[in-house]
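for the writeup, i need someone to sanity check this before i put it in the appendix. the sequnce is what the collaborator sent (i think, or maybe the updated version? ugh). structure was predicted straight from it, no edits. if anything looks off just tell me and ill rerun, i have time this weekend
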Amino acid sequence: MRKLTFQPLPQKNAMGLKIILTGTTGMVGEGVLLECLENDQVSEVLSISRRPYAISHPKYSELLLSDFMQIDAHRDRLRGFDACFYCAGVSSIGMSEADYTHITLTTTLRFAQVLAKLNPEMVFDFVTGALTDSSEQGRSMWARVKGKTENELMKLPFRGQYNFRPGLMTPVKGQKNVKGIFKPFIAILPFFMPKKTLSLHEVGRAMIRTVTEGYSKQVLEVPDIKVLGV
């Protein structure tokens, strides 16, 4: 892994960050979106999604895109952004390695490559997962694919590129996209596993601080996210 030193954005952008966000119709992306909309440092959020998200807010706009591999067709809409928070993703359950690789690695990398050309001063944050396999050699298919995705993203010429490996996450107030299976456990998770649990406010704040301040590591585990998410 190459060692990079990132500088903060110029002060003129510190209170007017323009963010591209994916995954707003999922739990993580929705939580990050709500934090960004509340955060005074963020002036604009462009959601790129396959499906619309029902919200009206002066900071918020949408680009609906059924195939992220076609992102290059919208180059003019994508210029001038300070960061991309890539929260889109799918579960590997029931998927072949080829299909999971196409969605998780190929599509993400294509999306990031286009943004790197248009916005080389951008910070690109990718939501990966705890236990991701950086060696790309382990037995777990999803962990290998996520690890390769992280490794390939770190080669791109962004001003900063960070890979978030959150563990258990609790939603923020107002979230709609929370899977029913998690709802009975959400309230008790922070009490029983405080060191492994993050709120999506913390994740969102940590992402914003990678843009304004940078961080000493490119792979952020739960303790790193907690440090930045205060």
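Residues 1-12 have pLDDT under 50 and may be disordered. The CA atoms of residues 161 and 186 lie 30 Å apart.
thx in advance!!
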